[in-house]
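Re: [help] complex structure
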Amino acid sequence: MKGPIASGAILLAGMFIFLKFILPLLTAPLPASLIYLYLAITLSGIMIFGTMSASSLESLMGPIFRFLSGKGQSGAGQMARLAVLVLFPLLVGWQTYTTLAPSDLPPGENRTIHPAPPGEFVGLSNPYPKTPENIMMGKGLYAAYCSPCHGANYDGKGPAAPGFNPPPANFSDPGTIAQLQEAYLFWRIKKGGVGLPVEGMPWKSAMPRWEVELPEEFIWKIIMGEYDGAHQSPRTWEEED
Amino acid sequence: MKSAGQLGPATVVQGMNRMSGFLKLASFFALLFLPALAMAAGGAEIQAMSVEYRDVPGIGSRNLVWIVAQQHLLLAGFVLGVPIFAWICELVGWKTKEPRYDKLAKEFTKLLTSAYATTALFGGILLFLLIGLYPKLMAYLTDMFFPSFLVYCLLFLLETATLYMYWYGWDYMQGNKKAFHLFLGFLLNLFALGIMAVPNSWATFQASPVVVGDGDAWARAWMAMQNPTWMPVNIHRLIANVVLGGFIVGAYAGIRYLLAVSQEEREHYDWMGYVGNFIGVFGMLPLPFAGYWLMREVYQYNQQMGITLMGGFLAWLFILQAMLIGVLFLGANYYFWMGITYRIPGSENQYKKPIMAMLVVLLLCLGVWMTPHSLVASLAEAQKMGGTHHPLLGVFGVMSAKMTVANIMILVTFMSFIMYWRAGKQETAVWAKAAKAVMGALLVIGGVAVIVLGVWGYFVPAIIRINYFSVAQVLIVLFIMVTFTPLTALLMKSAKTTTEMVWGKMPIRAGYSLVLNAVMVILLMSLMGYARSSSRVHWHIYGVMRDTSEYAFSPALGYAAAFMSLNTFVYCLLVAFIFWVATLGDKAKAQQPKGPLADVPSGAAPAMAGGAPSSSEAIESGILENHK
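Output below.
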């Protein structure tokens, strides 16, 4: 097969196969929203490149226009055109129906993972110095209270983790605690899942409200231990000496 | 007089039709007086300062202010952005003694004068609405900023007077008087800068208020003006106004190009479209840096506000932003690439591979930029991923990745422009080979360095990434831009033209792509305007004056997106109307009998990096006509 239409179709199909079937062999499967996004970007690339010049436009769109206009077609060509003209609206209709039809599936996840903290937690700083003793104490407290869910390796894979949805946060991921200030963690640990604002969906987190069991000193030291154990640094506005 | 029963059916229908027309007219006028209804809603008795809010029935006070404020801001963006490049164009025309630049600058200013009155009109409507609907807030702001109101009025008077002299004195102030005309253009921009900066301080004070100490009214106003986000917003808006102005002028040229009937018109508007796109792109290149600085200041001012914007419920707006910026980058590059293949005959095969490589890089970067941190996933999908963060692609969701791809997209767009500049020319300088090798090496080293810093950014504390790595990435890209531009200009100075650039040969989709770029930039400004404003959540003045009205909630994102689209649509209609009015004179002129049209001229001059129709015939027939 030659020509830009065939190349474009092969590229799109290859992209789909890679995202849908090959990538999950290496890592977790991608959600459909991301697959569609990447396919849309690929398609826009094909269209942009295919319409860059008069000759490329003719190569890409000429056969499509001629096919759809039906000029000079007979027999199988005519039948194929008719089939496309009938099947395409049906496909669009089917897609619309499946999107809008009532379903017993829960709606797509739209939870804000890092909602803004309440005002009283903004600007707090860890009142305890980062001494080896304090960090060690924090790690010990972490092992006792946090590691069953968040894991001894700070990777969110504690023995209790499989029982939760959403799963406990992976602190070694640079997209979690490394993006946040210590005050944010203090808020999350102290108030737990029930203390989340609405956009954070308080009913979707099993994080305990630790303020009822731990004094603030323990929470601050756990934060120190977490960062140190996960080899991450809290977000700050001042560089440490 | 007949009663209704005495009328025939046809008469009744006619009467009803007429009635319906009257009703429509009445409804239209009623709409204009909507704010007056607010007075009624406030009660008949004079409530003076006890009234905190008034509402507008139906649409609601917040929505009405949202629409009017957005229209005013977009119009103001155009009115403040256009004089910058109109003046630069005039300056280039004066220095190079090429009248086509003067003609272009005059055409830009013509659009400006038409839009100026509408901008002021919307500003006035906005002010009345704010005073009427939010009296408590306005009383506070007036108390805080009154001296700056006076400065604003003075600047407005000066700006108006200067604009009148600049526009109406254009033809008069040619020759020896041109220097004075240019000085007027400089003053116009100076006053415009002030007109933008003063109200910015009011809006930024609402988002990032500071403690105002003791002092007289002037001192207090000045202290309030110097709030943390004032300067970043000033810079961001200044650049964004140039981008908006450039792309809207490009869209205007695109539409005129599509409507052109003569070859001469096609050439002129093809060139104008190119210049508009060029201005838009060059403004767009530093814009992400300014945006980054603004967000940094927001985070530093208040972590809560920063997280609301970029991690909280407004974070999805930044994915939309990525999509719109991506389309804008693609659209601008697409126009450049089409310029190469259509304006430089025979160059298609030569540039096919570089264009494909640039396109692939841009699309890869767009893919990364658009990948959210928390993915939209069904319950089953989230369970398979182990949450809404994908273990592999989740890393694309954080700033280190976004900054890296934004820098690379800027770099690619810049190289697109350089490629366009060099297309159809052969360097003759003896040092050309060495210069090209240096540029190639710099590009590769710079690109690799940007990526390395981006990846490294995951492994260092956030403050190191923000303060050093991100800044280094920006500086690398800027270094490449400031090195390549003069080097290429020097190379092109002695270059031999191998293929003449032919203007007026672009396909119609080029005109549409210019319109698309303008729509994207309007949508983008509507989107980010909403983001900036709604980051205050339920505060009129963040942490100082709480919104206690019935609208003290953030609208759902879908609702907000619909309003942004409505604002974009209304603005496009307004701009179309203004431009239509501005070009009525041209149409009358075009209907006058003319001599035979000039033949296709060839643009040999590397004007504005790309050449322009500069044959004497075109200038004689096109520009001198305008100066008669």
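Confidence is low (pLDDT under 50) at residues 1-19, 35-46, 595-628 of chain B.
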